[in-house]
Amino acid sequence: MSGTTIKRKNSYLPAIFAGFMMMALFSIKGYGQERPPRPIAVTVKNAQGILFGTFAHGESGGTITVTHEGARTATGSVILISQGSFPSPAVFLVEGIKGTLITISPILDATLNGGSPAGHLTLKFDTPNIAASSGSPFILPYDSPSQMEIRIGGTLIVGNSGANPPGNYSGNFYVTFNQQ
Q1: At residue 173, what are phi and psi to the nearest 5 degrees?
Q2: Is 99 in contact with 142 (CB distance < 8 Å)?
Q3: What is the C-alpha to C-alpha distance for residues 137 and 177, in angstroms, rounded to an integer?
């Protein structure tokens, strides 16, 4: 057997090809929820106060309700007048990091002062309606900007004309947004 040479084929090329294929198969990326920065930054802007519009009331008083959609109804001897200021719910703009979970604490009743001589009205709140969501709690949307409009209606308790003389009434109420 002198003078015969046996040539071997390069057998490492299929192994290298298989290695590249394995790396390609196992390099698929997965995405999970991103961790929010600390502290979580949520901004709430008061876009519009609640307005009950112009009305008159008789001896027994009653209520005026403005829904979160802006519809206005009255009970008792309250007469709705459709001139002057128009009814509207309170509107808040909540902006923050996408995917932030936010709840709204129950809103306490508020007192509105005014009239001449001085009188006061009580303002009670219904459940807030949250645009593009089913209510509280809600999650800030994943699109940009990550902003939700919160519309809150309420019911104004109006006493008789002696307890609540004609005039302009105003006051403050507080809404607490809890971020998680």
Answers
A1: -140, 160
A2: yes
A3: 10
Question: What distance in Å separates the CA atoms of residue 175 and residue 180, rounded to the nearest whole number?
Answer: 16
CA pair distance 51, 145, nearest whole angstrom:
28
pLDDT tens track for 109-155:
999 998 677 889 999 987 665 554 446 778 887 776 778 888 899 99
Q: What are the structure tokens assigned to 110, written together?
A: 């508020």
Q: What is the DSSP letter of 176?
A: -
Q: What kind and span of H or E run contains 70?
A: none
Q: Domains of the chain, with CATH numbers?
A: 41-179 (2.60.40)
* C-alpha R_g of the chain: 32
The bridge status of strand 177-179 relative to strand 101-104 is: antiparallel
Helix (H) or strand (E) holding 20: helix 13-25
Q: Are 74 and 64 in contact (CB under 8 A)?
A: yes
**How far is the C-alpha of 93 from the C-alpha of 131, rounded, in Å?**
10
